[in-house]
């Protein structure tokens, strides 16, 4: 039988403004989500029970499969849709864990898409369970450019068609950062709404830098690259990215990334 396959695209926050703390303990944000063509890879075959095998370069950084967001997403979808079948899932973990690329959220969203197709259920079930799995999961379910408000789960379309196919270089100094801890380190100052992502900010940058000073080094390194037209940290870090004028300049910089850092040369969807 041919397995079902899904890419779990790496998520970027082109800008991320933190506006305040919410009664539920999370933060109100305004962000613009964009997605890369590359990411983790999920495949699955029909089975009686739910199971997950994790392989790939970052498999060793994840805990037991039962706590993996892929299994949590699969269980939530199975319960919501009243499905009796299972699935044998395999996750190829290619994105660093706790890196601001939404890896866990992207994997959960990929599981929802894959199982909606495999179990031939209505997509409304996936849309219903997505926000319960993580603030980023609704955006990752779409994996299309969007503006996010509220906790990041209130989505509206944004036209980034001029960026489709744009060359991107992702660089992570191999320092995992906890999203909760970075938000907890936000200084509490509302610096204003997000109107234009190019002239916006990442309000989590200073909190991330306090926990991972290497973020400053990565941002400076990317900014010094020839052809890098836009440089910012993504999400709660520590991954930073640069948009390049063309693929050749991106590839040239990719060859020069210090060996101790992780990088991915990719493009925007
Ligand atoms: C910061 C962002 C930006 O896209 O991405 P990442 O850095 O995780 O990729 C997201 O808001 C992360 O979304 P997600 O990773 O789904 O977070 P969740 O599981 O919902 O929340 C984890 C924890 O982060 C904090 N949190 C998350 C979202 C939010 N709007 N405010 C928060 O304060 C809370 O402490 C929460 O308990
Ligand atoms: N499939 C998964 N991929 C990544 N992290 C996962 C996954 N399942 C559970 N987690 C947990 O989620 C946390 C990090 O989530 P992740 O989405 O990678 O963060 P970020 O969005 O900042 O990259 C880690 O504590 C990790 O153990």
UniProtKB/TrEMBL annotation:
ATP binds at residues 96-106. The gene is ispE. It comes from the Bacteria. Residues 201-259 form the GHMP kinase C-terminal domain. Keywords: ATP-binding, Isoprene biosynthesis, Kinase, Nucleotide-binding, Transferase. The keyword Acetylation does not apply. NCBIfam families: ispE (TIGR00154), PRK14608.1 (NF011202). Belongs to the GHMP kinase family. IspE subfamily. Its EC number is 2.7.1.148. Pfam families: GHMP_kinases_C, GHMP_kinases_N. Catalyzes the phosphorylation of the position 2 hydroxy group of 4-diphosphocytidyl-2C-methyl-D-erythritol. Pathway: Isoprenoid biosynthesis; isopentenyl diphosphate biosynthesis via DXP pathway; isopentenyl diphosphate from 1-deoxy-D-xylulose 5-phosphate: step 3/6. Gene3D superfamilies: 3.30.230.10, GHMP kinase, C-terminal domain (3.30.70.890). This is 4-diphosphocytidyl-2-C-methyl-D-erythritol kinase. It comes from Sphingomonas lutea. InterPro entries: GHMP_kinase_C_dom, GHMP_kinase_C_sf, GHMP_kinase_N_dom, IspE, Ribosomal_Su5_D2-typ_SF, Ribsml_uS5_D2-typ_fold_subgr. It catalyses: 4-CDP-2-C-methyl-D-erythritol + ATP = 4-CDP-2-C-methyl-D-erythritol 2-phosphate + ADP + H(+). One of its GO terms (biological process) is terpenoid biosynthetic process. One of its GO terms (molecular function) is 4-(cytidine 5'-diphospho)-2-C-methyl-D-erythritol kinase activity. The active site is at 11, 136. The keyword Transmembrane does not apply. Residues 68-142 form the GHMP kinase N-terminal domain.
């Amino acid at each position: 039988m041919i397995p079902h396959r899904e890419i779990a695209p790496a998520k970027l926050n082109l800008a991320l403004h933190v506006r305040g703390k919410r009664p539920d303990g999370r933060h109100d944000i305004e962000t613009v989500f964009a997605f890369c063509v590359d990411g983790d890879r999920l495949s699955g075959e029909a089975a009686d029970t739910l199971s997950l095998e994790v392989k790939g370069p970052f498999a060793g950084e994840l805990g037991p499969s039962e706590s993996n967001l892929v299994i949590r997403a699969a269980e939530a979808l199975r319960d919501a849709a009243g499905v009796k079948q299972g699935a044998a899932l395999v996750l190829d973990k290619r994105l660093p864990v706790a890196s601001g690329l939404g890896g866990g959220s992207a994997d959960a969203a990929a599981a929802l898409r894959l199982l909606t197709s495999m179990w031939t259920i209505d997509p409304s079930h996936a849309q219903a369970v997505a926000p319960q799995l993580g603030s980023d999961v609704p955006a990752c379910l779409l994996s299309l450019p969007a503006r996010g408000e509220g906790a990041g789960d209130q989505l509206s379309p944004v036209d980034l068609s001029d960026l489709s196919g744009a060359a991107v270089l992702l660089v992570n100094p191999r320092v995992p950062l906890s999203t909760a801890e970075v938000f907890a380190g936000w200084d509490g100052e509302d610096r204003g709404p997000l109107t234009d992502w190019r002239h916006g900010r990442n309000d989590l940058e200073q909190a991330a830098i306090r926990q991972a000073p290497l973020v400053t080094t990565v941002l400076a390194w990317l900014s010094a690259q020839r052809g890098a037209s836009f440089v910012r940290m993504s999400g709660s870090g520590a991954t930073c990215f640069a948009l390049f004028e063309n693929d050749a300049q991106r590839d040239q910089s990719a060859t020069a990334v210090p060996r101790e850092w992780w990088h991915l040369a990719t493009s925007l969807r």
